[in-house]
Structures are given as C-alpha cells and as structure tokens.
Amino acid sequence: MTDQFGQVHNLSALCIGSIETNGQKGQDTSDGCNAPFPGKDTAQVPPTATGTSPAKRAQILEGAARIFAEHGYEGASMSCIARNAGVSKGTLYNYFDSKAVLFCAFIEQCTREKLPLMFRRIDEGANMAESLEHVARALIQLITSPLSLMLNRIIISEAGNFPELAKTFWTNGPQKATSILAAWLARAPQSSLLDVPDPTFAAEQFYALCQTHIAGRARMQLPVDTSPEHIDFIAHSAVRVFLNTYQRTGARQPPQAYTGKAAAEPATDTATGISTDTSTGTSTGTSTETTTGTATRP
C-alpha cells in the first residue's frame, strides 16, 4: 500500500485478529474463539491444542470447509470432519480444542485470505471515484463468490442457536472491512474532498450500495447477473450515489440505466472523479443551480 493509505500497510494484520499462541503453536486464542459454543463435540476435549504442522492444520481446515458447506455448523461433527480431512480424531483435537475453535479458525482463514483483496487497489485509482470503484468491484465479487454465499448461509441459519458464530463472522469480516474503509475516508486527501461526519456509517452505507440488485438474489440462490459488465455497472452506480451524497463541491451525477455494456465515460474532475459535460461546458446532473451558476446540493 502507498503512503496515502497511511498506517494500513499490512492488511493481513489489520483485517484479521492476530492468533496468539501462549507457547502452544497452533492454539487459536482469538477473541470469541476460546469458549466452546453450546452443542455437540464440546465434551471429551483436551485442555490445549498442541498441533504444530501448518500443512496438517491447512489439511484439517480444508476438510472442515467441505463438511461445514454440506452440513452447516450444528450438523457437522468432529468425527466427520476428521474423516473428510484424512486425519484421526485425536490429531484433529491436537489442532483444534473444539468445533467452535475450528469454525472460528475457518472464518479467520477465509477473511485473512479474501478481505485484503478488497483493498489492494484502493490507492491505484487516478482519482477518488476510481479508487472507490476498485473497492466496490472487489466487494461485489467477494460477496457473490461460492465461499461467501456458503458462509452467509451457515451464519444466518445457525445464528439463533449459536450467536457467537455470527459475532465471530461479523467481527472478522464486515466490521474489519468497515473499519478499514472508514479510516481511509477520514484521511487526506479524501477528508478534504468529502464531507463525512461519521466515517463508519458512511463506510457501511457504501457497502450496502454495492450490494444493490445482486447480493440478496445471490444469497437466495435466485437467477442473478454476475457478468463483469453488470458488476461494473453496480460498482459505478454505487460510487455515483455515494459521491453525490458526500462530496463537498461539484455537481450531482445523474443516474444511469444498465444497458448490458460499459457506458462511455464523461470527462471527470481529476481529484474526485466527478463527471462534467464537456460538450456544453457545464456540470452534468440534476442539482439546483444558483443565479451565478454554482451548483448546490438540493
């Protein structure tokens, strides 16, 4: 990451809560992951996990992913996970004290691998709009991926009986992503271009805009267009609405309809990426203008 993103250079460390070891490598002691959730597989558990092989740990997590995807959290047993992962049940417990710890580790691994991808191009944009579109596209691709849809299905179905699952997922996923974007919005030069009284709220609002017309349908397994053209349209529209709300100066951008192909881009302000109509010499949009021609917010 560039200096514009400030202290957020090591996204792996920021996006995921660190795993402390307390002298026992392989023991996950992240917040929310130590106390077993109620349910099966919490009895006959060794007091500490002592497995030390990263390859074996990864093998177990791969097997767990398949079982959780097929059976959900409550329906998955440690015996079944051990068989699918190709390890003994004793070996499994050497790495994960309980199913709760295993599922937390699975969530943390997913977010550790996927969350940084959302922000890897946030400082590559020629202007703020382009940077936000990089984030928007990455977010849409992430939330419509099979892995994310599977996790969302598990969390929603099990949250009532196992609220700690939802808390773990929220803390390591959406909450981390919100904190990163909020910090970016609050830093220069974004802070001088945008009027954002509550960066955390604004970040959550931006993520909600990015899910329009696609996330809900995908999560309910309804037909949905996930083509690059449609994702580009949603990302571009989300950024338009966001900047129309929070930009300090400049005209509002008019809405656009999806045509199934990339629309021709109008000229833009080099700092914000706000479009201007060069054919008329005036800013595009539907904003109210004063008698001097200066655009004001409605």
Structural description of this entry:
Among the domains are: 53-97, Orthogonal Bundle (Arc Repressor Mutant, subunit A), CATH 1.10.10; 105-246, Tetracycline Repressor, domain 2 (Orthogonal Bundle). Strand 1 (267-268) and strand 2 form a beta hairpin. The model is unreliable at 1-47 and 275-298 (pLDDT under 50). It is 51% helix and 3% strand. Helix 9 crosses helix 11 (199-210). The chain is mainly alpha-helical and 298 residues long. The strands form two sheets. It has a two-stranded antiparallel ribbon. It has a two-stranded antiparallel ribbon with strand order 3-4. The longest helix is centred in the middle third of the chain and has 21 residues, at 99-119. Residues 267-298 have a biased composition (Low complexity). One of its GO terms (molecular function) is DNA-binding transcription factor activity. Residues 77-96 bind DNA. Residues 54-114 form the HTH tetR-type domain. Keywords: DNA-binding, Transcription, Transcription regulation.
